[in-house]
Amino acid sequence: METFETADWRLDTLASLRDAWTSPWTGQISPAGTLIKKVTVARLSRKQTLTVSIPNATALFMNIARRAFSDAQSVRRQHIAAKPGDADLSLDDATAFRYLECMFEAVICAHTAVEAYVNELLPSDVTYERKNRQGEVEMLSKDQVERKASLAEKISTMLPKALGVASPKGVHRAYSDLQALTKIRDRLIHMKSVDRKSSGPEIDTIWHQLLTCDSPIEQAMSVIRYFAPTGEAKPRWLSNMPKS
Questions:
Q1: Quick one: 127 and 174 in the same domain?
Q2: Per-position DSSP letters for 168-194, written without gaps between them
Q3: How far apart (Å, rounded) are the C-alpha atoms in residues 143 and 135?
Q4: Is the backbone of residue 39 left (phi > 0), alpha (psi -120 to 50) or beta?
Q5: Which of the four pLDDT bands, split at 50, 70 and 90, describes residue 244?
Q6: Which of 1, 62, 133, 240 could form a disulfide with 9 if both were Cys (CB 3.0 to 4.6 A apart)?
Q7: Domain count, the chain
Q8: Residue 229 has pLDDT above 90, yes or no
């Protein structure tokens, strides 16, 4: 029987039956200790449905990002780090593009993981007062905060206030890590003309950033760890996430 220890670390919610339970619909008996998961059911056709367990969105995005960044690092170790004495290096097109695709994936998914986690941590009854662009005071509900506020605003002001913790802005690397991750993510999502031109090392392009940037995984985890509950309240996925 599946247990808490053997269940996939990416599951969103996990509980177990204290006592045996008989389904009133099917008559099937589930013994004590049977795991309880949230599921989603998709209708594939008139006669067929598909049921799958719901993963934690942050865990899923972080796992995608980790896998992609690991693949990119493999390219660096094999084709760049292995040649420390070479002044001028190059990569064949297939290898270079594979590296860049992996970094696209790592950066975008790592950033999305942070946003998913921040939105998850916001209490359902949270409200936040701020001035809009017209200078008028508006009161935002959680749904409005998720949709209207920038990730930087949520992390620097809204989430600390909601959770009763100090803001990381200006005092902890979590905020500077978020700024760096957001900057490169935005350059990927909103690709500009300058990044489509041929350039030398003196021009800062998104390609240069992807070849020299810090780990997007560490940047994302810096923010996640800052706000993560500790002890028994610590998310199961965060406690069980593979180290590499």
A1: yes
A2: -TTTSHHHHHHHHHHHHHHHHHT--GG
A3: 21
A4: beta
A5: low
A6: 240
A7: 2
A8: no
